[in-house]
Amino acid sequence: MTRIILSGAFGKMGKAITSCVGSREDCEIAVGVDVATGNSDFPLYHSFKEISEDVTADVIVDFSHPSALNDLLEYAISKKLPAVIATTGLNNQQIPLIKAASESIPVFFSANMSVGVSLISELAKKAAKILQNDFDIEIVEMHHNQKIDAPSGTALMLADSISEVLNDEPFYEFDRHSKRMKRNKNEIGIHSVRGGTVVGEHEIIFAGNDEVIKISHSAFSKQLFAVGAVNAGIFLVGKEPGFYSMKDLINSI
Q1: Contact by Cβ (8 Å): 189, 89
Q2: Distances, alpha carbon 68 to alpha carbons 33, 63, 94, 146, in Å
Q3: Assign residue 171 a region: left if phi > 0, alpha if psi is -120 to 50, beta otherwise?
Q4: Cβ–Cβ contacts within 10 Å for residue 228, how many?
């Protein structure tokens, strides 16, 4: 039985993970961590610094807020606990902290916990490797009107994946409307749409001469991300310190 510390227990994803865990027999939530208050079937703490010494757990699953990262990593390292980091909106200074922590503990980091998104990332990388600069690359992402960060972490992850295989290093264009100039050949345009209750849609567009190739993924429920995060947590238990991703999880199946 895998015992989980759930960070961001009262958020939308935290509730989805609670529901997911409740339907399984191979894991349980040991405690929750959240600045908010509410009713739960497990003990709740407002910060990692408050967690009782009596708490026993096997892994941390984090769907909270970037501001919680430092305390989470400090706690995970001190307790030698694996950590699944699924929070989006992290800044460029926080990613190195996660990688540094992976030298001491197993860390699973992904901007998207969907197997389907991992698949389209690999497909887009394959397409970019073949098409190179003969095609212009644009990424369009759409989410609900309550999402704070833009572009989505998944859109950036897709762009990074594509960039790895391009012969010429691209730059990301987020604000084309403020410029009066032709499109640069080495740019990847990234566009954000916010509205309604859209869970998540991502489309990669390869636009060439007389043809357009599109690779897309649509999420209709947060539950698929919850399942992915819980599976990642179970996968991480017992692993050696290191930096793990969805590719490692998929290859283990």
Answers
A1: no
A2: 10, 10, 11, 20
A3: beta
A4: 23
Residue of 12, 65, 79, 147 marked active site: 147
DSSP-derived pairing of the beta strands 171-173 and 187-194: parallel
Structure tokens at 229: 């995060």
Distance CA 198, CA 200 (A): 6
Which region, left, alpha or beta, applies to residue 80 given φ > 0 means left and ψ of -120 to 50 means alpha? Answer: left
- 230/61 Cα distance (integer angstroms): 7
User: Which residue matches tokens 């993970």?
Assistant: 17
Please report the pLDDT score of residue 250 as a whole number.
82
> Rounded to 5 degrees, what are φ and ψ at 232?
-65, -40
Query: How confident is the model over 74-87, as pLDDT tens digits?
Result: 999 999 999 999 98
Token duo for residue 197 = 């209750």
Q: Over the stretch 102-138, which tens digit does the pLDDT of each residue have?
A: 999 999 998 889 989 989 999 999 999 999 989 999 9
Single pTM value for the model: 0.81
Report pLDDT for 179: 82
The DSSP element (H or E) to which 246 belongs, if any, is helix 246-252
3-state secondary structure of 139: strand
Compute φ and ψ for 60, nearest 5 degrees: -105, 135
In terms of Cβ atoms closer than 10 Å to its own Cβ (0-12, 13-18, 19+), residue 83 is buried
- Which one of 143, 202, 217, 222 is the catalytic residue? 143
Q: Measured between alpha carbons, how far is 65 from 44 in angstroms, rounded to an integer?
A: 17
Confidence of residue 64 (pLDDT cuts 50, 70, 90): very high
- Give yes or no: 65 in active site: no
| Structure tokens that stand for 218 in this block | 């649509």
State mean pLDDT over 45-52.
94
| Active-site residue, 147 included | yes
